[in-house]
Amino acid sequence: MPNACKQVLVKNKLGLHARPAMQFVDMANQFTSDIKVLKGGEEPCEADGKSVMQMIILAAVEGTPLTIEASGDDADEAVRRLGDLFDSGFGEDE
Amino acid sequence: MEIKKGIGVSPGVVISTAVVLDAEDLLIPRRQVETADVPAEIKRVEKALAESVADLTRLRKETAAKHGKEIGNIFDFHLGILRDKTTLKQLLTEIQTNQTTAEYAVSVVMRRFAANFLKMSDKYLSERVKDVYDVERRILRNLIGQKHKGLGQLKQDVIVIAHDLLPSQTAALDRAHVRGFATDVGGRTSHTAIVARAMGIPAVVGLGDITSEVSGGDTVIIDGNRGVLIINPDEDQLIEHREFERKLIRLETELAELRDLPAQTLDGHVVSLQANIEFPEEVRDATHRGAQGIGLYRTEFLYLASAQEPTEEDHYNSYVEAIRLLKGRPLVIRTLDLGADKYTQEKAANPERNPFLGDRSIRMCLHDIPMFKRQLRAIMRASVLGDVRIMFPMISTLMELRQAKMVLKDVTEELEDENQPFRQDIPIGIMIEVPSAALMANHFAREVNFFSIGTNDLIQYTLACDRTNEKVAGLFCPAHPAVLALIRDVIRAGVRNSISVSVCGEMAGEALYTLLLLGLGLTIFSMNGPDIPEVKKIIRSTTMAHAKQVARRVMSFDSERQVMHFLREETRKIIPEAF
Predict the structure, then answer these.
(1) B120 touches A at CB < 8 Å
(2) How far is A84 from chain B, CA to nearest CA, in Å?
(3) Residue B46 has pLDDT above 60, yes or no
C-alpha cells in the first residue's frame, strides 16, 4: 500500500482551532487513505486526521510543526492537498 | 484520583457518589443496564446523535439566513463532533463495556473530551470547551426528550455537584439523600454554604470547574473542614477519610454533651444561643443542638419550593409546625426577604440593573401589599399558639418601618373584624443590615421591640462588595473595622433603649467572633444549628471581663487582618482545637 508523509507548520495565528480543524477533517474524509497527524515536542501525540475531536486535542498553536501521514491508494494526493491547507494558513490571517 | 482545593464552608467528611447538576438540572446518575438492554441504549444514543445533527443543520441554515454564512459556520464544529467516528466509537465502548445508560455514556465521553481542552495552555483553544458542553447538552436534551425513566430522582445517597446551587434547586432537592455539596463558585456566605450548614452536611465551594471534572457516578470525598474534594480516591485515602469521619462524629458527641448546659461565662454572664432555620422541620435538629429558640426563620423557601405563590394557609401551616416543635421557645419570623437573586430576576419582566440595590425584601413587600398581607395574616393568626415575634428585613428608612407597621395594623383590624384571635402585643423588630439603619439605630430603637443584625448584608453594603463575585469576595470580611464599629453602635443603641439585640448573620456562628461579640455586649446569638455547641464552648470557657478586654483591644485596630489575627490567637488560648 502506498505511503506518504509531509512535514508542515501551523502558520495561522490562532492555531489549529475549531474552524481549520474542521476544514482539515472535511478534506481528509474525501480520501480513502488512512490519515494521521503527528505532533512531536515534549508531549508527542497523534490524531486520526478524520476525527475533529482528535485533531482539536492536538492543541497545535501557531508555529507547531506537525507531520501528516497517509497510507492508502490516494496517499500522495491526500498528503499534498492537506499540506497545502496548512501552507495557505487555512485562508486565515492577512 | 485527583485532589481539588476549594473553600470548606460546612464542616464534616463524607464519601459518596456524585451527581452532577448542570444549569439545566439534568441529573446524570450512573446507571447500569442489563446486558440485554445494551442494544437498546446504543439505539438511543445513535438516535440522539442523529436528532442533534438534524437540529444543528436546521439551526445553521436559519442562522446563516439571518446573520450570514460566516455566523452559521460556527455550528460546523458542533456538527463535526457529532459526526466524528471517534465520538461514536467512544460512546459505544462506554455503553458496551461498562453497561451504562446512554445518558451516562454521553456525559462521560464529553467530559473526558472537555478535560482535554481544559488542559490546553492556549487560551483561545481552551475556550472552545464551551462548544463541547454545548454539544453535550444538546445530545442529553435529545436523549432525555425520549423520556428515559428514573432520571432525575434520587434513589441513593449522593453528593450534589453544581456550578452554583440556586435557591429554587435546593428547595426542590430530595434532602433525605443529599450527603454533601460541592460547587464551582461561591464563598462562605453563598446560598450553598448556608443551606449545607443548616442541613448539617459538609460542603466545599469555589472549586473552579468541578462540574466538568467530576462525572456523575464518580466516587467523591468531600472534606468540609479542610476544603478539599477528592475525585475517585485511592484505597489509602478512603481509609484515612473514614477514620477522620469517625473522629468528627466523636467530636460531635462530645459537643452534644454541652447541649443542656447554659451559655454562661465563667463569671456568670448568660447569653441566649438560638438557631436560624429555613424549614420548620429544622427546629428539631436545632433544639437537639441546644438552640433556645429560633432567632431567624427565613420564609423565602415557601416561595421558592413551588411554582405558585404560597397561600395564607401554606404560611400558616408552616408556622404552626415550627411553633409546635419549639414547645414554647421563641420564634422570630422574618417577613419575605426575596429579590435580588436569580430567581426573581429571571421572572421579572424587566430585570433590574442593580438588584441588590433594587426592589427587594421589604421594598418588594410594600409594593405588593396583598402578598405582604397574606403572610402577615398567617403570622398573626399563628401568634396565639406560641412565642411568635415578627421581624421586617432590609429596613433602610424610618418611613419603611412605619409603613410596614401600618400594613400590620390593617391586618390586625381585619382579623378583629373576623373575630380571629391574635397576640395584641406581638414583639416587632427589624433587621439591621443596611448601613443607614445601623447609623440611625437610636431612632429605630424607639419604634421597635428588638434589633437583629444581619451581618451578611450589612458587610456587603458597608464594604460595597458582592460576596458571590469571586473577584471581589476577598474584600468581604466581618472583621473590617467599619463593620465592627456599626455593630458596636447598634448594640449600644439597643442597650441604651432597653431593647434586645441579636446577630443573626453568619458571623454569630463563627467561633472566631464569639469573644468579640460577647465583649461588645451582645446577648442573643442566632446561628445555624450545627455551630451552637462550639460557640457555647467558647462562652463557657471565658469570662465577661476577658471578652470586654478583647473587644476593647479589637476596636483599636485599623485593619481586618490585625483583628482576625488577634481574635484567632485569643480564641486558641481558650480552645486550642478551634482552628
Answers:
(1) yes
(2) 21
(3) yes
B295 touches B524 (CB < 8 A): yes
Report the alpha-carbon distance of residue A50 to residue A21 in Å, rounded: 10
Residues of A in contact with B80 (CB under 8 A): 18, 21-22, 25-26, 52
Query: Is-contact A79 A31, C-beta < 8 A?
Result: no
A contact set with B (CB within 8 A) = 14-15, 17-19, 21-22, 25-26, 48, 50-54, 56-57, 59, 61
Written as one string, the DSSP assignment of B78-147 is: HHHHHH-HHHHHHHHHHHHHH-B-HHHHHHHHHHHHHHHHHH-S-HHHHTTHHHHHHHHHHHHHHHHHT-
Catalytic residue among A17, A23, A71, A76: A17
A17 is catalytic: yes
Task: Please say if the pLDDT value at position B344 is more than 60.
Answer: no
Identify all chain A residues contacting B124, using CB atoms and an 8 Å cutoff.
14-15, 17
b (16+ CB within 10 A) / e for B289-302: bbbbbbbbbbbbbb
Highest mean predicted confidence (pLDDT) among B55-69, B172-186, B480-494? B480-494
Contact at 8 Å (CB) between B360 and B351? no
Closest CA to B169 of B364, B301, B297: B301
* Whether pLDDT at B351 is above 80: no
Query: What confidence tens digit (pLDDT) does each residue in B528-549 have?
Result: 887 898 899 999 999 999 999 9
Question: Which chain B residues are Cβ-neighbours of A62 within 8 angstroms?
Answer: none
Q: Which parts of B395-510 are beta strand (E)?
A: 428-432, 450-453, 500-503
Residue among B77, B121, B122 whose CB faces A52 most closely: B77
Nearest to B108 by CA among B61, B45, B171, B43: B45
Which pLDDT tens digit goes with each residue over B260-318?
A: 899 999 999 999 999 998 888 788 878 888 999 999 999 987 777 666 788 999 999 99
Could you say which DSSP state residue B33 is in?
-
Sign of CA dihedral B285, B286, B292, B296: negative
Chain B residues inside the 8 Å CB shell of A41 = none
DSSP-assigned letter for residue B267: T
B35: DSSP letter = G
pLDDT surpasses 50 at B7: yes
B13-21 and B219-223 strand pairing: antiparallel
Q: Which DSSP string corresponds to B194-240?
A: HHHHHHT--EEE--SSHHHHS-TT-EEEEETTTTEEEES--HHHHHH
Global confidence as pTM: 0.59
Report the residue from A15, A22, A53 with minimal CB separation from B113. A53
Burial class (CB in 10 A: 0-12, 13-18, 19+), B370: exposed
CA angle B345, B346, B351 (to 5 degrees): 45
Out of B77, B85, B87, name the one closest to residue A18 (CB): B77
This model of the complex carries an ipTM of: 0.87
Measured CA to CA, the distance from residue B458 to residue B454 in angstroms comes to 6
State which residues of chain A have pLDDT below 70: 93-94
Number of DSSP helices (H) and strands (E) in chain B, helices first? 26, 16
Query: Bridge partners of B230?
Result: B3, B221
Grid coordinates of B123: 487560551
B80, A25: Cβ pair inside 8 Å? yes
Alpha-carbon torsion B43, B49, B55, B61, what sign? Answer: negative
pLDDT of B342 above 50 = no
